[in-house]
Design goal:
This protein is α+β, with helices and mostly antiparallel strands. Among the domains are: about 100 residues, Beta-Lactamase (2-Layer Sandwich), CATH 3.30.450; about 140 residues, Reverse transcriptase/Diguanylate cyclase domain (Alpha-Beta Plaits, 2-Layer Sandwich); about 240 residues, TIM Barrel, CATH 3.20.20.450. Helices cover about 45% and strands about 20% of the residues. It contains 24 helices and 26 strands. The strands form 4 sheets. Strands 18-19-21-22-23-24-25-26 form an 8-stranded mixed β-barrel, surrounded by 4 helices. Strand 1 and strand 2 form a beta hairpin. The longest helix is centred in the N-terminal third of the chain and has 71 residues. The termini are far apart. The N terminus and C terminus are likely disordered.
């Protein structure tokens, strides 16, 4: 009996020891798993919010850069022609993507392209900007726009660094709210985001989780979440907000016992701006603690049955892992899935790209592309349709990917692709395939897509840097008339630097009259050549060196400066013609080139008329040249502009006829006086019967429409003979004269009743 009790005691002791060991092992194992899952979950939360931080940072940085750059160039805004200034503000607003860009004078009066009579001197952003600050305002109501906006303001400095005004850009607050609003598991408002300043003032806000909803303008430090901090925790948070590039996570419990996790990060554009996002703890980490408590209760409840307890432990542990895995999958979906397209986010793309590039036996190319003027598509068809098109683009790109490749929509209509690189020819074929698919499947408008390709030669570069290099290549083909692509090379970087140098100097060059007008004679093809007029051509003469127009004209058309330059040339031509009148030459006709950029300005014809009136030059002596390619953007708009110019008395010339694809069709609609045949036809025409037949047909067709013809680029006796035989009305080219300064053209004027032929060797 004693032996049996003793054995039973040993058995009981063995069970107790075994159970104790089991519990210790279980706790160690569970604690290790819990720590690992918590660590992975925190990493996913960081990735998710980090992507939003980068997106917010990029948008705010771009908006601040727009107003600060323009403010730096606006020191002389008070002396500018108001209509010219309003046109510039309109172009800048359309190019920047902002809702409106305005200039505010020292009294608070607004200058905008909308010509609104508004005073904003009472606005806080205006007062702070007048004190020399670069300001990002809280969300405010804009009466002219009828919506909530955020304002980006920068001071304009005059002489002696005195603030003489403010440049302000407004952006729809919904643009930021779309990024600030975070959703986990598909439920709205279970995660929120704010942009605040270092004092805790809320500038922009997404959804709210708390009963004391924190509106814009309130202080985040007074919310339930932050109010629950200890003094030490609050002091640490405020200290972090005063550091550069600070970020981190905080756990806390509000006054109602609800647990939350917050992520904070300083925005790179301004260390006084911070991103603050809050998640419910059960969404971010799962209900791990609750499952652990259930397991412990079961252990003690079934202490007498070790096997049953082990089985119960395994069952509930499995359920715990399943729940935690589900929570992690939900967070992963938010962190790595673009809610608009359903494909990977920037964070997912960056992670996958790093992994693929680590496989050194493959070569890759980094591709960046976007749709030119996508903002106009949103304005025309609405954001919902724009989003549908972006989803359609993502589907097309996804179908054209191979194994070991990835892509992502970075923001708006900007996409990045990492493609396996075999050769330039193979890469071009793949790009063309994507272009064809986009043009075929997007039916409600004709997309113009710009591609930049960086052949990855240094895998140590950051993914962001590779994207920058692809973007540089993309910039070289943007704003063309058809989809195009370009491979990155070092010369592109030099070209961008040169363009930046030109942009830094262009306004000073205009003010200093470095832009000079040259004149190339137009000559009749009668029995004796006579001077019929001239074409005004702009040249940039800097330090006795002539800068090629090819270097600055395309750039000025992209950045809008061409508007100023064209009006400047018009004024110089009128001034010269007034001088020629005093010399007795009152019937000379001068043609002036105008960029198609003007077509978007309804006041363009009246502005030209006003310049002529200022110098008392009849509009009948001015011929406006506009290239035929302007018809690609809108033949209807071009026709209305031509009709308005004709009603004001101007002559109209269609320049570079034959260089495009709609030439014959558009002639029936455009009320033009002169057809200027592109030099490309003349290059091969002398010994090319088909080219001769085309020129003959164009000349005959123009005559039947009541239009004169002029052929440019004439350089030889053979070409002169050919054009005479074809009854072309006028020519211009090196055969008679090169473009020349004003004084040189005046010498020709003095002999205009004699032959215009000059010695080509001179």
């Amino acid at each position: 009996m004693l032996g049996s009790v003793k054995k039973q005691s040993y058995f009981t002791l063995a069970i107790i020891v075994l159970f104790s060991v089991f519990i210790v092992i279980a706790f160690v194992f569970l604690n290790g798993v819990t720590s690992k899952l918590n660590s992975e979950t925190e990493s996913l939360v960081h990735d998710m919010v980090h992507g939003n931080t980068q997106a917010i940072n990029s948008m705010v940085k771009a908006d601040i850069s727009t107003v600060t750059n323009y403010a730096a160039c606006s020191s002389k805004y008070k002396s500018r022609i108001r209509v010219e200034l309003m046109t510039e503000l309109k172009n800048l607003t359309e190019d920047s993507g902002l809702l409106n860009i305005i200039i505010i004078d020292e009294k608070g009066d607004v200058i905008s392209y909308r010509n609104e009579d508004i005073n904003v001197s009472y606005r806080d952003y205006f007062k702070r900007a007048m004190n020399g600050e670069i300001v990002v305002s809280e969300t405010i109501y804009s009466e002219p726009d009828g919506r909530m906006v955020n304002v980006f303001a920068a001071p304009i400095y005059g002489d002696y660094q005195r603030v003489i005004g403010v440049v302000a850009g407004m952006n729809n607050s919904d643009v930021y709210k779309e990024i600030l609003d975070l959703s986990v598991s598909g439920h709205e408002a279970n995660a929120m985001g704010y942009i605040i300043d270092s004092n805790g003032e809320v500038l922009m806000a997404g959804a709210s989780l708390f009963g004391d909803y924190t509106p814009v303008g309130d202080n985040l430090y007074q919310s339930d979440f932050v109010a629950s901090f200890t003094e030490q925790e609050l002091a640490v948070l405020k200290d972090e907000f005063n550091k550069k590039d600070s970020h981190g996570m905080i756990k806390s419990t509000d006054n109602n016992g609800k647990e939350y996790v917050a992520y904070y990060a300083t925005l790179g554009v301004d260390r006084n701006l911070h991103y603050f996002a809050v998640f419910p703890a059960d969404v971010a980490y799962g209900k791990l603690d609750g499952y652990v408590n259930k397991i412990l209760v079961l252990f003690f409840f079934f202490i007498g049955a070790l096997i049953f307890t082990l089985i119960a432990y395994l069952i509930f542990t499995y359920n715990s892992f399943k729940a935690l895995r589900k929570a992690n999958e939900e967070i992963t979906k938010v962190a790595y899935e673009d809610t608009l397209t359903g494909y990977g986010t920037w964070g997912k793309f960056e992670k996958d790209a790093k992994y693929l590039l680590s496989q050194s036996y493959r070569k890759f190319a980094f591709v960046s592309f976007d749709i030119d003027k996508f903002k106009a598509i949103n304005d025309m068809f609405g954001h919902e349709e724009g989003n549908r098109i972006l989803k359609q683009i993502a589907d097309i790109v996804n179908r054209n990917l191979n194994n070991h490749e990835t892509f992502s929509r970075i923001n708006s209509d900007n996409f990045y692709l990492l493609l396996v690189y075999k050769s330039d020819e193979d890469m071009i074929d793949r790009i063309k395939k994507i272009i064809y698919a986009l043009e075929y499947e997007i039916t409600n408008f004709a997309p113009v897509i710009s591609f930049g390709i960086y052949r990855i030669t240094d895998t140590k570069l950051s993914i962001r840097k590779m994207g920058d290099l692809a973007d540089i290549a993309k910039r070289t083909v943007k704003y063309g008339e058809r989809s195009a692509y370009a491979f990155y090379n070092e010369e592109m970087l030099l070209e961008i630097r040169e363009e930046k140098h030109i942009e830094n100097e262009m306004q000073n060059a205009l003010d200093s009259h470095e832009f000079c007008v040259y004149y190339q004679p137009k000559v009749s093809l009668g029995e004796t050549p006579y001077l019929m007029g001239a074409e005004a051509l702009v040249r940039w003469v800097k330090n006795d060196t002539v800068v090629s127009p090819a270097k600055f004209i395309p750039l000025f058309e992209r950045n809008g400066f061409i508007v100023k330059l064209d009006y400047y040339v018009m004024e110089q031509v009128c001034y010269a013609m007034k001088t020629w009148e005093s010399l007795g030459y009152k019937d000379i006709m001068v043609s002036v080139n105008m960029s198609r950029v003007h077509l978007s300005d309804p006041a363009f014809p009246d502005t030209l008329k006003s310049i002529c009136d200022d110098y008392a030059i009849p509009t009948s002596r001015i011929e406006i040249e506009i290239t035929e390619s302007a018809a690609y953007e809108s033949l209807e708009v071009l026709t209305k502009v031509f009709e308005k110019l004709k009603s004001l008395g101007f002559h109209i010339s269609i320049d570079d006829f034959g260089s495009g694809y709609s030439s014959l069709n558009m002639l029936k609609d455009l009320p033009a006086d002169v057809l200027k045949i592109d030099r490309a036809f003349l290059t091969e025409s002398v010994n090319n019967k088909r080219a001769n037949d085309i020129i003959a047909y164009v000349i005959k067709m123009a005559g039947s429409l009541g239009m004169d013809t002029i052929c440019e680029g004439v350089e030889s006796d053979e070409q002169i003979t050919l054009l005479k035989d074809l009854h072309c009305d006028m020519v211009q080219g090196y055969y008679y004269a090169r473009p020349m300064p004003t004084h040189g053209f005046e010498e020709i004027l003095k002999g205009k009743h004699e032959t215009i032929r000059i010695n080509k060797e001179n």
